[in-house]
Each structure stands twice: as structure tokens, then as C-alpha cells.
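user: can you give me the structure for this one chain? C-alpha cells are fine.
assistant: on it. calling the predictor now.
[tool input]
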Amino acid sequence: MRKFIYALIAIAMSMINVAIMAQSSPFSTGYLIPVAKGDTISGVSTVTKSFTATAGYNTVAVQVNLDTIKGSPHDTISGKVYLQKSIDGVYYTVTDSTTISSKSVIGGATGFNAAYYSHAVADGSKYQLIVKSTTAFKKCNWLVRVYYLERKTITSSGF
């Protein structure tokens, strides 16, 4: 009987440990959507990136980075970043947007974080990020990189 009680305590403690690790999730990192040929902004242009939220996750965080790949990193960029959401992947609704106003890189860096969003997710939701530049700069090309991280919140209500 004593061994059975110890085994139950050990199982309960391991389940609590798993729940705590899932909450802090130190091994989670953002996924970079693969960079494609048209993912650069030069002049007045638009870049669109899409991804689908995986079933079982209830939060998604999205980060848009702009990096200089040609020209001076002190050239400025102005524009807007839109986060859109859809269920069917055809008709999207804007859920959030961020203005990039005359942003330039400071110091020795080669880029900056243009936008960050965190949203609740429905299973199978489709997301689209649109980065539109509104300035006609000619000296610099900017590479758009989009990272996303899906998170699952585990509650300890079952313990």
C-alpha cells in the first residue's frame, strides 16, 4: 500500500512539473517563415507573408523584422504593417496594424523590429502579414522577415 501511495505522489509531482515547464516553455522559439524572392522592399512596394495556426494552440505571437541588405542602414523607411486573419484563407479581416514612420537603424545594427502582435487563436486560423512601404527611397533595400510563435496555455485544474 505504501508503494502505491508513493507511486501516486511521484506521478502527481511529475505531472505538476510538466505543467510548470509548459507554462514557462523555455524551449520555445519563434519560427521564421522562409524568405522568398519577393520579400524585399525597395521604393513604394508591398510584401505579403502567410501562415496557418496549428490546432491545439490558443495564442500566437508574430514579429516582423526589417533588415537592410543593400545601401546605407541610415536610410529611412515609412509605411505600415497589417496583420489579417481569416478562416477560409480567401477573405481576410485586418485585426491589427502598426505604422512605420521614418524609421531608420540606430547604431551598428542592420535592422529593427517593425511590428509585434499577440493574439488569441482559433484552430486552423489563417494569418496574413502585409508590409507596405510608402516612401520612395532609392538607396536601400529592406528584407522582410516574419517570425511567429504559437503558445499553448496549460492550466492545473486537473490536479
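assistant: here you go. The CA atoms of residues 42 and 141 lie 5 Å apart. The radius of gyration is 21 Å.
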